[in-house]
Amino acid sequence: MWVTPLNTIERSLTFTQKVTRMLASERTLDSVDKVHKMMKDLVGQLHSDVQVMTDPHARAIFEAAEESISKLIRAIGDFEKKQEPGYSGT
Prior knowledge:
Blueprint: H1 6-12, H2 15-52, H3 56-80
Helix pairs in contact: 2-3
């Protein structure tokens, strides 16, 4: 099987693609930080709302949302630390 050398692939990229690729990791980390903070704030708000809710169905939905978002926060933390299961470093 013939494999294209990396330098051949790199030469075929446009300038915009090269710049985008170069900045992608910085943008990703900035985006991850922003989303991480937003999710933490949302979990706090959901938790506060659950404490005052009287409708059991609404309470269950908010608790499930809080739990799900907390798991996403944990996954983002693993991503930032490069401890995400299956992290390949690419």
